[in-house]
Amino acid sequence: MNLFRNVGRFAPWGLVGAAALSLAACEDLGSGSQRALSPIPPETLALMEQAGVTKESPTLIRSYKKEAEFQIWKQRPDGRYAYLKTFPMCRWSGQLGPKVREGDRQAPEGFYSITPGQMNPNSAYYLSFNVGYPNAYDRAYGHSGGSIMVHGACSSAGCFSMTDRQIAEIYAILRTSFNNGQRSIQMQSYPFKMTAENLAKHRLDPNIGFWKQLKEGSDHFEVAGKEPSVGVCNRRYVFDATSANGQPLDASAACPPLRRNAEIEAQVAQKAAADDAKVAELAAAGLRPVRVVYQDGGQHPDFHARIAEVSRPEALVAPIEIALDEKTGKSRSPVIAMSAAMSAAKAKKETEFKVAAHEATIVKQAEAAPPAEPAKAGAFAVATDSIGGLLGLTKEQPAAPAVQSEPVAKTEPIKASAKTEVSSVKADASKTEATKASKAVSVKPAVIATAVVAKSSGAKPAATSSQAPASLPSHRAADPAKKPQASLGAERRAKVAAAMGGASGLREALPPVPARP
Predict the structure, then answer these.
(1) What biological-process terms (Gene Ontology) are attached (predicted)?
(2) CA distances from 79 to 225, 245, 295, 492, 495 (A)
(3) How many Å separate Cα 135 from the centre of its chain?
């Protein structure tokens, strides 16, 4: 009997141990105690002073998935809440819409309560706290799952993920409020900011009815400036309402008669009517309804340049907006449209990657390649062109570019005959500048051509390239005092024709040039 008493006495400790073991699978127990004691940064304390609040005053949280923002609000002495600061969300997973079941990777949406017991100083994700999912509304619909956290490490599988530095500051703010008497902290989790523009774009989304309930709670907070009381009856959220007959609210049962603040209700109704009118105006102006699809959640733009710090960065592609049919409220083929859009996004990403890789390869090859020698290649080309011109075998040149405005002297090719007739350059005296330019360009090729011919005949050139006489340009007129060379025979002409493919053939085909005295 004593044995059973002892077992019964230690049974609660056994349950605690079992719970600790279950947490140990995903939590690094005992390693983060010092992290949980981090103070609130001085710059945040300065913001509190500017807002007229203290670090000990009650705290309220508002989060927005689409905008990836995590806001902290603090209560002023008059009971109204003042905005303190926004933490850009490093990562959230899933789609816009509520969490429905275990393992759906959805970050929940709704109104949740965080208590001191939900704070986890020993998290494997630096620090964390449980948001309180599922709440009464979720349970009324049979939504399953749990352990949805706000944590660090910038890694999310259905949670709200921050950086380690961010979660340390958020944790310190919540801890300070709890230590000064706040029993629970309300977290308002929204799919997006409840503006008329967002509601107009998502007006045909299957979750729009649920989101309008969340907007009602948001309106209560913004109109009154105070934390709204949240209840659930008839499987709907009710705000700032109490049972008129004292009957407790049952999430799954019909709502009893409710007592509300008439002034606040009138202001909320007025705001809702104005927003509805704006939604109708935007729809009439042509703003199309869409369904926004994420590959797996999103992040704040501040983290786009720090993609290496994010879990599953390949999933953080831009969301796809699928246009919905205004008449049916559905896309023509959601599955096909979604698949096509995802394929297009993937193909675009692959193309951009291939183009970038190709450009990088070209740059590397250009850097590794030895420097080109344009002078040698150009000299050989000029030499062969000049020799061919002397023989009357020049190839037809392409048309001159449009930018050449000054005419140049035209040279007629030398024709092989019994008496070689070399046509003189037809240069107009009024075109002196063009003639000078032609001579300046042709001096060097002529010298090179002379050097090649002299080498083939064994004679020494009359002058070096640095001492080229002005009387040796390739386009000079024939000297009538000198006798022309003998005409080329059939065999030599055949050699010339065969020699056009290479310089060695040209040298064999050329007649010997007598050395000048």
Answers:
(1) cell wall organization; peptidoglycan biosynthetic process; regulation of cell shape
(2) 8, 27, 41, 112, 108
(3) 37
Q: Give the residue from 367, 358, 109, 319 showing the smallest Cα distance to 201.
A: 319
3-state secondary structure of 236: strand
Instruction: Evaluate whether 125 touches 150 at the Cβ level (below 8 Å).
Output: no
**Tell me: the pLDDT tens digits for 456-508?**
444 444 444 444 444 444 444 445 444 445 444 566 666 655 555 544 444 44
Q: Could you give phi then psi for residue 213, rounded to 5 degrees?
A: -65, -45
Instruction: Name the amino acid, one letter, at 269.
Output: A
Within 25-73, residue ranges assigned H as helices are: 42-51
Helix then strand then coil, in percent of the chain rounded to 5, is: 40, 15, 45
Rounded to the nearest 5 degrees, what angle is found at the Cα of 244, between the Cα atoms of 241 and 248?
Answer: 75
Beta bridge partners of 59: 74
- Which residue do the tokens 């603090």 mark? 74
CA-closest candidate to residue 89, choices 109, 112, 70: 70
Instruction: State pTM to two decimals.
Output: 0.61
Among the four given CATH numbers 1.10.569.10, 3.30.70.100, 2.40.440.10, 3.40.50.10420, the one describing domain 28-318: 2.40.440.10
Residue type present at position 103: G
Between the two ends of the chain, the Cα-to-Cα distance in Å is: 139
Please give the backbone phi and psi of residue 195, each rounded to the nearest 5 degrees, phi first: -90, 160
Q: How many angstroms separate the CA atoms of 239 and 215, rounded?
A: 11
Read off φ and ψ for residue 220, nearest 5 degrees. Answer: -60, -45
Q: Are 275 and 268 in contact (CB under 8 A)?
A: no
pLDDT tens string 93-108? 899 999 999 999 999 9
Q: CA-CA distance, 419 to 425, in Å (whole number)?
A: 19
**Catalytic machinery residues:** 151, 159
Q: Domain map of the chain by residue range?
A: 1-27, 28-318, 324-354, 375-394+410-425+434-509
Q: Tell me: the pLDDT tens digits for 334-389?
A: 444 445 555 665 666 567 667 777 777 887 777 776 665 554 445 444 444 544 55
Half-sphere exposure of 435 (CA within 13 A, CB side): 10
Q: For residues 466 and 470, what is the distance between their CA atoms, to the nearest angstrom?
A: 12
Q: Where do we find the tokens 């002058």?
A: 463
Which tokens is 203 given? Answer: 């007006």
Cα separation, 182 vs 133, in Å, equals 20
Burial degree of 2 (CB within 10 A; 0-12, 13-18, 19+): exposed
